[in-house]
Amino acid sequence: LQYRLRAQPEHTAGCERQRKRETERERETDRDPTTTTTLKLLRKLHSCDRDCSSCPQAARSASPPQRTEETPPRSTRRAPSPLPVPRSPAMTTSTFLRLLALGLALLLLPVTGQTLRDPRKRPPPAQKAGAKGQCCEDVRALKVQVANLSSLLEELTRKQDTVVRQLMDLDNQNRVQEARVTEAESKYSEINNRVDIIQLQASQSLTQTTSDAIYDCASLYSRNYKISGEYKLPADGFLGTPEMEVFCDMDTDGGGWTVIQRRKVGLTSFDRDWKQYRKGFGAVRGDFWLGNDNLFRLTRQPTALRIELEDWEGHVRYAEYKYFSLSDDANSYKLFISGYSGNAGQDSLRYHNNTNFSTKNKDNDKCVDDCAQLRKGGYWYNCCTDSNLNGVFYRHGEHTSHTDGITWYGWHGPNYSLKRVEMKIRPHSFQP
After folding, report:
1. Which of 16, 26, 101, 373 can bridge 45 by disulfide, Cβ–Cβ 3.0-4.6 Å?
2. Torsion 223-210-201-295 (CA) sign
3. Three-state SS for 63?
4. Which residues contact 374 (CB under 8 A, 6 or more apart)?
5. Quick check: 284 pLDDT over 50?
6. Of 49, 88, 53, 73, which Cα lies nearest the Cα of 1?
7. Coiled-coil regions in this chain (predicted)?
8. 10 Å Cβ neighbour count for 199?
9. What is the value of pTM for the model shown?
């Protein structure tokens, strides 16, 4: 009994210290009220359980009183050892309190779990599921909109292609119509010119002179026909010229020029025989030769000659002769020229002055070789050329490696074939 009385204050002091520590912990915690209440209850239950298991009085009160026999005091002062407390087979207070704490913990677990979660870090399951469902709905709506826009874009693309094709067709039709209008205007102008010329010719007296006859472009110019183009001249009995189509240049150096030769397209071969050169060949709007017979008749009066040259670099030169004439067929259309001027370099036609005209079937040159066969064109060959305006038409890329091309030695030498050549005549007495 004395031992128990001595141990009771120590045990009471320990319990007081434990309660103080728990009170300080409760003051330091900043949890929400529900969590704090739960933890207080759990700590109290745990403390009571521990107190009950360690306190002698609690153990004595929990167990039935036992009868003890007093032992006589011994001579030594050794304290008697405490008697063992028998355990009852029934449920103890400690076990009951533990079960009660476990039940309360299970009941309060959902509440404390919800309270301890941070809503900013992990949203509630219901809210998260709702947001996920809304996101899926938005994605499906966007997919539908994308599909609709893609279909609309394809339709617009097809319509755009259709419009482009229609515009191209309209442009082609417009070009065709413009070409037809231009052709119709040209034919209309030609018909008017012919009508006017015929009317003028009919109004002339039978005793007409060379001053009022219509036989070349200069005579048309003097009657106010000042538009360059194709004209059809009537036959003239006084000069002996037949009806013929000519191209009149009414712009260059005052106009009035009758074009007698042109090379610019390259589709007409000039390697012809004597008869073809005598009558002429080609189309006056393209490459052509007016004919040696016509040249003879047109140059029976003093006539000037102008030769225009163009190379493949786009440079243009000209050579002009104050006097130019041809003899008749019996004299092989011999050439007579004089009075050179221009910027085409050295006079490259003077070497051919006083020479007869030659073709591949009639050699009239002054050389042992047949120059018309070598140069592949009819011309006034000497032995053989310083120029050949009726040579082979070589296109760009092949124009610098042949001696039988369209040449003018005074400008580009014997191996350079020119891009364009035009020969034209008008009376020496012409006044613009």
Report:
1. 101
2. negative
3. coil
4. 384, 404
5. yes
6. 73
7. 139-201
8. 9
9. 0.54
